Amino acid sequence: MADKDYTDTIEKWRKEMDTNLRRENGWLALAGLFWLRKGENAIGSDPDCDIRLPARAPKRLGVFEFDGNNVTLDVESDLLVEVNGMATKTALLDADQEDVPSFITFNDMRMVVVRRSKGVGIRLWDNTRQERFTFPTREWFPVKEEFRIPATYTRYDTPRVVKMPDILGAILDERMEGYLTFELNGRTHELVVSELPDHRLWIQFMDLTNGHTTYPSGRYHYTDAHEDGKVFIDFNKAYSPPCAFTDYATCTFSPQENHLQIAIEAGEIYPEHQRKLHQM
């Protein structure tokens, strides 16, 4: 049985994860993902618009002009539209991968340009979506302290490139700074990882629970900052990717190197109601 203080810490973290899922402009507020074509892309609630907004929006808010690389917003409606807090009628937009993305906000909605393997698109949030308030609470395995495992981080002399699939069907080349080794069930296991500037490590992994009790395409986990290569992998904090909650996320998934041949019965569960959501 896990130590009470440790269990309380994990339960608090899990509640924060659930709150973040429901926050304004969070994953459950996503309402659309639209891929741009070259030229004008009409924005509005009219069914003929390329970027279809909720019914309370103007029939035609304006257009996104796409030249194959850059995206420009031109507002035609009298509705107050802000880009990063400044009212405007036109703006050259920076995508979500830039240091300062151009967030377009109006009437409890938000949009941003995204660049993905499929192309350049527009992500839409609608903060009035009922899902923010009615989606069931995230579900987790009971906390098991044996799944908090000491590990050793080894940094590569030169970062290694691995093949990582995304939900759009592409295979991406992703840089890994190093790998973790750890012992579980009497065997040594290895995971390639990305290292963040604060020395936390990001892991995308699969195991034998995927498609049964956990999300089919794997789970994510951030470790705490490593100290001289020493760190804990805490599978009690393994969580489902955003694609488990919305069809408008563009997740990447575990590289082949991180397919563990053991069942990690810890962390987030993929319950029946979420399975049905993605079968609709």
Share of helix among residues? Answer: 10-25%
The number of strands is 17
- Note the beta-strand portion: 35-45%
Please compute the radius of gyration using only Cα atoms: 21 Å
On the 0-100 scale, what is the average pLDDT? Answer: 95
Shape: globular
Helix/strand order, N-terminal first: HEEEEEEEEEEEHEEEEEEH
Low-confidence stretches: none
Backbone structural class? mainly beta
When the domains are counted, the total is 2
Distance between the termini: 39 Å
Strand order of the largest sheet: 1-11-10-9-6-7
Number of helices: 3
Q: Can you summarize the main beta sheet?
A: 6 strands, antiparallel
Characterise this structure.
It contains 3 helices and 17 strands. By secondary structure, the protein is mainly beta. Strand 13 (171-184) and strand 14 (187-195) form a beta hairpin. The longest helix has 19 residues, at 4-22.
Which key terms come to mind for this protein?
Tumour Suppressor Smad4, 38% strand, 280 residues, 3 helices, six-stranded antiparallel beta sheet, single chain, 10% helix, mainly beta
In short:
The chain is mainly β.
Topology:
Layout: H1 4-22, E1 30-35, E2 39-44, E3 51-52, E4 62-66, E5 71-75, E6 82-83, E7 86-87, E8 90-93, E9 104-106, E10 109-116, E11 119-126, H2 131-134, E12 148-165, E13 171-184, E14 187-195, E15 201-205, E16 219-222, E17 230-234, H3 272-277
Parallel strand pairs: 2-3
Antiparallel strand pairs: 1-11, 2-4, 4-5, 5-8, 6-7, 6-9, 9-10, 10-11, 12-13, 12-17, 13-14, 14-15, 15-16
